[in-house]
Design goal:
heterotetramer, A: 147 residues, alpha+beta, Sufe protein. Chain: A, three-stranded antiparallel sheet, 3 strands, globular, B: alpha/beta, Aspartate Aminotransferase, domain 2, seven-stranded mixed sheet, four-stranded antiparallel sheet, 40% helix, binds pyridoxal-5'-phosphate
Chain lengths: 147, 410, 410, 147
């Protein structure tokens, strides 16, 4: 049985206690909403996409340490990044969470950085949904922004 | 009370499981209960020696299986003091039982503008089916509010029930543990000409049930929460209502005749039991009813009252203002199910730490989102106790909570 | 075929039962099959060591139970070659699965004047739900007739299907044993713009099933007929259809959110699985699928073809014109299920004498009254064979029949 | 396990092979129909009730030896009998079939006669419905006749 320290790395707890990019953005920024029906976690992602780049991102909602810190780390990782690169990162993150999407190995050119700390979540399968929630919501936001 | 409840633990093999070297502290019985050997053995032995289809074939093996199946129905009927065994309909779970009421009685009786009364403490199973029908038909749903200590607020009930066709409510909240005054609520419903539908999922496993004393019209509950198997639920209905409402699912067993241009229905209870039934599960349920009856439902209630008292005291004295227990702290108004907030640690994180101690609780919305919104929470931690739990498991819960507090408040 | 089928008998404890000193000759598997130790043990062991609610709580015990439950879904999906596991919905039986299709796809798609095509050999489970909806909505039901040897008469099928919205048919008759050309029938349905609903109750347990090769839209079948437990059935549906149709039962697990003024649905397959599911039963079903897969469905079909051949020969050579076996005598068009009339002895009386020999057959209308009317019978005797039956049990059937003949023709 | 001879007494087989009072009656005779959904047995009872007496009775339908012989024996037993006495006989017969109707012991003044032969059916619970079918249908016919 994996221990709590595998799940709750220090950097995760840090993002949980001091979440980055909290807040909302006004339209024309897009807003995407995600929730985990199982545990009631809710997340809102606000995206400002300018010339193919995520120029600003804000996160609202509430949930457990894993979903909130994953959202916070995600926001830090994608802010200022080109959409193409962010899509690759989403894919790479889900791959790390062992979520298969039938495509081949993900593009590893985008470094995971701090996100690597979430790797331990894989040992706690019920928490994978928590970690991925923000990322699915981000993907939905990108769809909205490009629509 | 002369029964030694801690010796009952030996009847439940799962409770002897160790995970990671730690004994199991199973505090999720409001979700689903563990099963005693009496139930497991009844099912195993049936599968090994007696399995056969019921109510169809006539050979000795099938006749015997039918006797066991119908015997389970009779046991359930006496367990809830139903006037007739044929008023007991087996379903797949309580959710199907409630949907059955909505889709048969509701479809036949509700039209635009008709009023359905629910309460703010209902489980989704007693909300969503009504919402589906209400949306189709244009019915109005009214909600009985709660007091600040999690009881039904009946101060305005006559206004809410006036003109209502049905009052459907839980006998005990699966989140707050609140025990509702079922008999009084049935009388209120009838006074206003409404039928009374009782969701007994949380009450039937934990205390005496008497549908005649309640004067209820329908009662739904689940086998798996009362030490019985999964895969079977129960709907009891007043004979006259069951006779007059249309059938639910169509198929074998529920018909008297089928022609190319239509069908006629079988007698009760067949009318509501389409297709091959949960046969082994009914046998297991019969054994569960025997098991609970032998202990005595009043003894079980007594034991859980003691546990609830102990738990309330232990949690509040150890954690003071760090814990917020939702619902009433009057032990006569509640069962041994506790939903709470702990410090500012998210319930999911609390349950994760508790799991390291092999303390099994549920974190989430407990299928009662409208109530969660009222509590202002997205989720709570819920520890729910049953006949096999002990005060030392309350202590184990407290110890594990202490650890969770330490871990998240560095 | 290298498998020794008679050694399989030892896997099924009931088959060793003696009643009145006589060994059990179980010939009622088309009704419900017996269960091997692999299935019984999987259930018992789950109840003793691993029982927990699924898809709700997050502690280790519950996560493990959820893995087993979802693992069963994946096993079923590969067993029928479904593209996605989330296309497999667990129900309480095949009857509920068919009702689900009617009440979700049917409710959303059928209105007055729309055409439903069934066949004269359907089980009530694939008739009555359609009749209920047709009566409500004013739909037309058309019936594919049979040839004199009990096959579907497709000579007029293009006329019958023209303008139809749905063609719902059994893959194998539970009375005649006829195996229908499922792939061809699905293609015919699609050619006319109808969806194809396949009742696989009698075929899935006895031969290879490949929903992608069939190009079917829905497939319903039951665990209890395929050496699995009672209390669980299966609906497979094409992902795109499952996505677009409304939910069936309302309650916990099938929702994404519930507010006072309405709810939103969960993703597949949760959308169609309201309430606590048949958890132990899913575990047993998973074991049943493993058991059948290890033997190989083609081997099972081969074994039953041999048995059918032997039975046809034995019955006709011993009883000549005293027995009328309904359906085809082409072994490639039928399974090992035989309905027959014997002399002028009423089927109920035949089965009574057979029961004295501990030969278990079903006498009655087999939940297929429209077909019985076509056969001009109120009832037939039905002997149905499965993987555990042997040629010596065919002989036992013949001996018992001989006795019935003697008894009633003094 | 009871043997076949407990069930199929000679007199039962006799009534099965040579059923009494087969046929139909024209209105104003009443007609009642019963069937056993389990095994498909069907029975029609035609009744001519004159001045409180069953002046004529005919039986149609088809079914197993037990349901048919029970119907035949019943017809012979009730033909020409006052309705009151027949009602008592119905009750007595059902009592013999161990079907409780919550009332006290039945009136035993009406002799069962040949019907006694059906007593063995009780040992075969699944056949009780066969034996009782005609009697329930008769009771329904009496309701219709008195309506
Ligand atoms: C062809 C067919 N369809 C449907 C059913 C109904 O299955 P179940 O009774 O398991 O719901 C059966 C069996 O009873 C059957 O043989
Ligand atoms: C109060 C209440 N009602 C209904 C249900 C639904 O029961 P089931 O899931 O067995 O259908 C539950 C339990 O989940 C419950 O606690």
């Amino acid at each position: 049985m994996p221990g709590l320290e595998d799940l709750y790395r220090e950097i995760i707890l840090d993002h949980y206690k001091s979440p980055r990019n909290r807040g909302t953005l006004e339209p024309p920024a897009v807003r995407a909403e995600g929730h985990n029906p199982l545990c009631g976690d809710e997340i809102e992602v606000f995206l400002d996409v300018q010339d193919g780049v995520i120029s600003d991102i804000k996160i609202s909602g509430q949930g457990c340490s894993i979903s909130q810190s994953s959202a916070s780390m995600m926001s830090a990782a994608v802010k200022g990044k080109p959409v193409e690169q962010v899509r690759a990162l989403i894919q790479r993150f889900k791959h790390m969470m062992s979520i298969e999407d039938e495509t081949s190995e993900p593009d590893t050119s985008t470094p995971l950085g701090d996100l690597e700390a979430l790797q331990g979540v894989v040992k706690f399968p019920v928490r994978i949904k928590c970690a991925v929630l923000a990322w699915n919501t981000l993907a939905e936001g990108l769809e909205l922004a490009s629509a | 009370m002369t029964l030694n409840f801690s010796s009952l633990r030996a009847d439940f093999p799962v409770l002897a499981e160790h995970i990671n070297g730690k004994p199991l502290v199973y505090l999720d019985s409001a979700n689903s209960s563990q099963k005693p050997n009496a139930v497991i053995d009844a099912m195993t032995s049936f599968l090994q020696h007696s399995y056969a289809p019921t109510n169809r074939s006539a050979y000795t093996l099938a006749a015997h299986a039918t006797d066991l199946y119908e015997g389970a129905r009779s046991k359930v009927a006496s367990f809830i003091n139903a006037p007739h065994a044929h008023e007991v309909v087996f379903t797949k779970n309580a959710t199907e039982a409630l949907n059955l009421v909505v889709r048969t009685w509701g479809s036949a009786n509700l039209s635009a503008g008709d009023v359905i009364v629910l309460t703010h403490m209902e489980h989704h199973a007693n909300i969503v089916p009504w919402q589906m029908l209400a949306a189709e038909r244009g019915c109005e749903i009214r909600w009985v509010p709660l007091t600040s200590d999690g009881l039904l607020d009946l101060s305005n009930i006559d206004v809410l029930l006036s003109g209502a066709s049905v009052f459907s409510f839980t006998a005990m909240s699966n989140v707050l543990g609140t025990i509702n005054p079922v008999k009084e609520l049935c009388a209120l419903a009838h006074k206003h000409g409404a039928i009374a539908v009782v969701d007994g999922c949380q009450s039937v496993p934990h205390m005496m049930t008497d549908v005649q004393d309640f004067d209820a019209d329908f009662l739904a509950f689940s086998s798996h929460k009362m030490v019985g198997p999964s895969g079977i639920g129960i709907l009891w209905g007043r004979e006259s209502l069951l006779e007059e409402i249309p059938p639910f699912l169509g198929g074998g067993n529920m018909i008297a005749d089928v022609k190319l241009d239509g069908f006629t229905c079988a007698e009760l209870p067949g009318k509501f039991e389409a297709g091959t039934q949960p046969i082994t599960e009914a046998v297991g349920l019969g054994a569960a009813v025997d098991y609970l009856s032998a202990i005595g439902m009043n003894n079980i209630r007594e034991h859980e009252r003691d546990l609830a008292q102990y738990a309330l005291h232990a949690l509040t004295s150890r954690f003071g203002r760090d814990i917020v227990i939702h619902g009433s702290n009057d032990i006569n108004q509640r069962g041994a199910t506790f939903s709470f907030a702990f410090k500012d640690v998210h319930p999911h994180d609390v349950s994760q730490v508790l799991d390291q101690h092999n303390v099994c609780v549920r974190a989430g919305h407990h299928c009662a989102k409208p109530l969660m919104r009222l509590l202002g929470a997205n989720a709570t931690v819920r520890a729910s106790f049953y006949l096999y739990n002990t005060t030392s498991e309350v202590d184990a819960l407290c110890d594990a909570l202490e650890d969770a507090g330490d871990f998240f408040t560095l």
